[in-house]
Amino acid sequence: LGPAQDELRAAWGDAAQALARQHARSGERARAVALLQALLAREPLREGAHRELMVLLAAEGERARALAHYEAFGARLRAELGAAPDRETRALADRLRALA
User: Fold this and answer.
1) Taking the model in full, what pTM does it have?
2) Spatial distance between the Cα atoms of 67 and 25, rounded to a whole number of angstroms
3) Residue 95 CB partners (closer than 8 Å, separation 6+)
4) Please, which contacts does 10-18 make with residues 24 or more away whose CB atoms are closer than 8 Å?
5) Is residue 73 within 8 Å of 92, Cβ to Cβ?
6) pLDDT number for residue 71
7) Segments in the chain forming alpha helices (H)
8) d(C-alpha 22, C-alpha 92), whole Å
9) For the chain: N or C, fewer Cβ within 10 A?
10) How confident is the model at residue 2, as a pLDDT?
11) Phi/psi of residue 53, each to 5°?
12) What is the pLDDT along the chain (100 residues), one digit of tens a residue?
């Protein structure tokens, strides 16, 4: 049951993230944000979903919220894994900070 459950969880996460992208492309950013938040509640270390959420929040004019999300994610990574966000995520946060 373990490996099959892991595969199912990963497939669900991939599908949820793809659906969130589709919502965002269709202009339904609030739905995309809600879906990404639900995904991250189940898979809090899925870094690509964190980046997508940050981009959506910033696109909605919530740059400060996007940066706060980045800080919270970074703190979680440090606490749980002793790691920092990857280069792409850090670069996104830097770009958002530069918009101030």
Assistant:
1) 0.92
2) 22
3) none
4) 12/42, 13/39, 13/42, 13/43, 13/46, 13/49, 17/46, 17/48, 17/49, 17/52
5) no
6) 98
7) 2-25, 29-42, 47-59, 63-81, 87-98
8) 21
9) N
10) 84
11) -65, -45
12) 688 898 999 999 999 999 999 999 999 999 999 999 999 999 999 999 999 999 999 999 999 999 999 999 999 999 999 999 999 999 999 999 998 7
Residue with tokens 């990574």: 77
User: If you count them, how many residues does the chain have?
Assistant: 100
Look up tokens 């739905």; give the residue: 31
CA-nearest of 21, 40, 41 to 31 is 21
Tokens (6 digits) for 47: 């870094």
Task: Using the structure block, give the residue that is written with the tokens 């959420």.
Answer: 53
